[in-house]
Design a protein that fits this description.
mainly alpha; Growth Hormone, Chain: A; 2 domains; 14 helices; 82% helix; 0% strand
Length: 400
Amino acid sequence: MTLPSGRTQRVPAAVLAAAFLFNLGQGVLRPSMPLYLQRTFSANYSMVTLIPVVFGAGKWIANIPTGYILDCLGRPLMVGGLVLIALIDVVSVMTSRFDVFLGLRALGGVGWAMFATVATTATVSLPAPQRRGRAVSLLLMSETAGLLLGSAAGGWLYQGIGVASPFLFEAACMVGAAITVGHWASLAAAPSRHRSQDRRVLSTVLRTPGVVLMGVTSALVTAIQTGVLVFLFPLYLLTRAGLGPEAVGAVVSLSVLGRLMALWLGGTVSDRRGRMHVLIPGLLIYAALLAGTSRLTQPVGLGVCSFAIGATAGFVAAAPTALTSDRVEPPLQGIAIGWLRTMSDSVQILGPLLIGALADAIDLSAPFLTGATLLAGMAWQCRRHASAMAAASAERRGDS
């Protein structure tokens, strides 16, 4: 999709508003989903854990194909994803069969990929490269704010209005997001039809220097976020630090607050100083904080570490997407974003299982220390890549 020439374009407010509404609906549904499953289907633990697995599988399957068909259908594809999720939410509360419900949630993952991949591609393609980090940060801030507010309201809706209300609320959010972004999407430039059938495009993207490295980096950060911080950190606070449920919730919320506050700073610094100047020290600090957290039991220290871990994760969050978008040609950005999301969704499915098995086999501290080691190793790989790119750039200047 070509962009009109002229002054530098910024991320449209419609995309940011739609991302907020999208994640507001997702956030409302997250805490109430296990309660709904238990009440409606008498679900056991295995049935509950199948929901994120099939939802993640739907996203995983659809991410890269969405990048391919983006050039055929254009940005209205994101509206289709929103409408699909809204319809699935309505149908979900009407079914009494768990297998049907499971299939619907997998289709919901497809809708998620349709919206999120297109929204991220639009975000990185509109601004000039020197503003791309801040653009990605703005999108992530909108998503985080929506999830934060939605998670706080989900339990209240379930208890105060009815068991089906979170699904209907999410459907309403998706319709609102579709209306919000629909006019902007219809005004987008006409989609290109020149490369939609080229099956070698993904290979071209993956051969671009830094793309595979950024995919692995994004996957590692996501694995630690979902496997360690979301699932095991609350358990660590409960068993090792002896905190009650309310205190656990407060400490975990500090991580979300830290992430939200640091997102803009990370994007700004990466635009002004370079992506690797954010990513390498950020990964090392992240590693040190993870390792240090595994040794703490005092509530105040854990609260400070939780905030710092969230802030560090937010600081580096935009860098892999921005750097990947810097390296690939604009017509290939949709597939590159699909690749990044496929890597992240892969570890969202497998990461919690592997990390949980590690904690069971060794100790609850083991995932923290393992994550710290992997982050430090990834920082080293990023440093090697940055040095190689700098040497190649110096050689080209010498030849000219």
